[in-house]
Design brief:
Layout (H helix, E strand, L loop, with lengths): L12 E5 L4 E3 L2 H4 E4 L7 E5 L2 E5 L9 E12 L5 E9 L7 E9 L10 E6 L9 H4 L4 E4 L5 E7 L2 E8 L14 E2 L5 E4 L6 E6 L9 E7 L3 E6 L6 E5 L3 E4 L6 E6 L9 E5 L2 E5 L3 E2 L12 E3 L5 E2 L5 E5 L3 E4 L4 E4 L5 E2 L4 E4 L2 E4 L8 E4 L4 E3 L9 E4 L1 E2 L6 E6 L8 E6 L5 E6 L3 E7 L2 E9 L21 E3 L4 E3 L4 E5 L6
Parallel strand pairs: 8-15, 16-23, 25-35, 36-43
Antiparallel strand pairs: 1-5, 2-6, 3-6, 4-5, 6-7, 8-11, 9-10, 9-12, 12-13, 12-14, 16-17, 17-20, 18-21, 19-20, 21-22, 24-26, 26-31, 27-33, 28-29, 28-32, 30-31, 32-34, 36-39, 37-38, 37-40, 40-41, 40-42
């Protein structure tokens, strides 16, 4: 009692009988009762019977759903059962539904396992405090495609929020992904199945704090700050050198010598000092076998037009023996390249415009801070691409907008390599041959960048659109692309 689909239920227990012996699997998380209850019910599995005892009076004229998300297991085969049980304390089962999809507001990628919460407008609370203080009356979760459906709903006026809910407390906590409706509320009635596109964002904060500090082999210190700042400094019981990252909120430092036991780092942020003893990570089982390795900018034997030859090593460099570095031309005659730059882990040789065609670096020519040397000779052939190597892209759009629009050209890694203001004809020049994508940002606040949403202001994030097809740009070719925006 009751049976699935029963109406006018007046008891305080739900009992179910199964054909096999059962056991519970984390019932507090995997048994979800909607609408949410104030008090956690007592749940017991004994032999082939499950009993749920409510510790409060159920609401009158209300449809309740109990979702078993793998909470019931066959005691012998351990098969998870996923099913839903429905009953009503009134004389009918509520049958209204809400559907939709939740995506990342910036990337437009679907988000799975996002909490979808429905809250009645009858709550006596300010809009911006509802998901912070109240658990949803009705709830669901997005699937792999980001889609969701909430069933057996009662007619009324509701608020709808999507919450990342990392700590599974059914509340919105700062730092979690979040989505809201710009119109704030919606009316749900008979013959209606609202379908919502929710765009999840993380609210920006000007607060500056240390998010993370990682200390990894062989002596790399990574500092992640919540926001860029000039008020941060770090020191240690060994000297530190900073690696240039081009960012002020993601900082990389290296110890000048091999780490010593019980390393300490002293950080200062906004005038406050702290001592950190991080765990030393990624230590290989046999340090003696670790080698000094390198990456370079040669792609299939080629360098970009007028690009210098560059090497990046796995560890900071202490010294280089230039007499052990040799350049040769096409006739294997040695070429003198005197000018070079060494910056912590990188070596750049001024080869652009020279006759250099091959480089040979003798073994042991380089020494790292930690005493490691090249264990074998390095040899590479290369040449610069001609000046007309690059391609270009002309983008046309037979569209106008009532607000400023920012256009990004993205490379194959999704990084923005060029930015222009929208025009019906846009030209991107000197492009490396490869695959590209376009992104539009509707710059509502006219600040020249994407702006996230705000719960306090009831504001959705600025809309972002990507072109769906990959744009292939070829060397020495001018690619024309007509971008037609299509409705969802």
């Amino acid at each position: 009692m009751p049976y699935n689909g029963q109406v006018n239920f007046a008891g305080n227990e739900v009992k179910m009988k199964f054909t096999e012996y059962i056991r519970l699997n984390n019932p507090s998380e995997n048994i979800i009762i909607i609408p949410q209850l104030e008090n956690q019910p007592d749940i017991e599995a004994k032999n082939k019977k499950l009993t749920i005892t409510f510790n409060e009076e159920l609401e009158e004229n209300t449809t309740y759903t109990i979702t078993f998300n793998g909470a019931i297991q066959d005691i012998t085969e351990k098969n998870d059962s996923v099913f839903q049980f429905v009953f009503s304390t009134g004389d009918y089962i509520d049958s209204l539904s809400v559907t939709g999809q939740v995506k990342d507001a910036f990337t437009n990628k679907p988000l799975k396992e996002i909490l979808i919460g429905l809250y009645p407008k009858t709550l006596e609370a300010n809009f911006d405090s509802i998901p912070l203080k109240y658990k949803p009356t009705y709830l669901g979760q997005s699937d792999q495609a980001g889609t969701f459906q909430l069933n057996y709903l009662k007619s009324g006026v509701y608020y709808l929020f999507a919450i990342e809910d990392r700590n599974r407390n059914l509340l919105y906590d700062k730092g979690e992904g979040f989505a809201l409706l710009a119109e704030k509320e919606f009316k749900l009635g008979p013959d209606e199945t609202p379908d919502f596109d929710l765009r999840s964002f993380k609210e920006t904060s000007k607060e500056i704090y240390l998010e993370d500090l990682n200390f990894t082999f062989p002596g790399r210190v990574e500092v992640i700050l919540s926001n860029p700042t000039d008020s941060f400094s770090i020191s240690s019981n060994l000297p530190l050198l900073q690696e240039e990252t081009g960012q002020r909120d993601s900082l990389i430092f290296w110890l000048e010598k091999s780490p010593v036991p019980k390393m300490k780092f002293y950080v200062e942020l906004k005038g406050e000092k702290d001592t950190i003893r991080p765990v030393y990570k990624k230590i290989p089982d046999d340090i003696e076998t670790v080698k000094l390795t390198q990456k370079n900018n040669i792609k299939k034997g080629k360098l970009l037009p007028q690009e210098n030859l560059q090497f990046t090593f796995s560890e900071p460099l202490l010294d280089i023996d230039l007499n052990a570095v040799h350049f040769y031309d096409l006739d294997s005659q040695e070429v003198k390249i005197d000018s070079f730059q060494m910056n912590l882990r990188t070596l750049e040789f001024n080869t652009a415009g020279s006759d250099a065609h091959r480089i040979v670096i003798d073994s042991a020519a380089l020494v790292s801070f930690y005493g490691r040397v090249l264990d074998k000779e390095l040899s590479f052939t290369f040449e610069n691409e001609p000046a007309d190597y690059y391609g270009s892209l002309i983008v046309t759009m037979d569209t106008t907008f009532s607000m400023p629009v920012i256009v990004h050209l993205l490379d194959n890694n999704g990084d923005a390599i060029d930015t222009v203001d929208f025009n019906q004809k846009m030209i991107f020049s000197e492009l490396i041959p490869g695959n590209y994508q376009l992104r539009l940002i509707f710059d509502v606040d006219k600040n020249g960048e994407w702006t996230t949403g705000s719960l306090a202001d009831g504001r959705e994030p600025e809309k972002v659109i990507y072109n769906k097809e990959t744009i292939k740009v070829k060397s020495k070719w001018e690619k024309e692309f007509d971008w037609v925006l299509t409705p969802k």
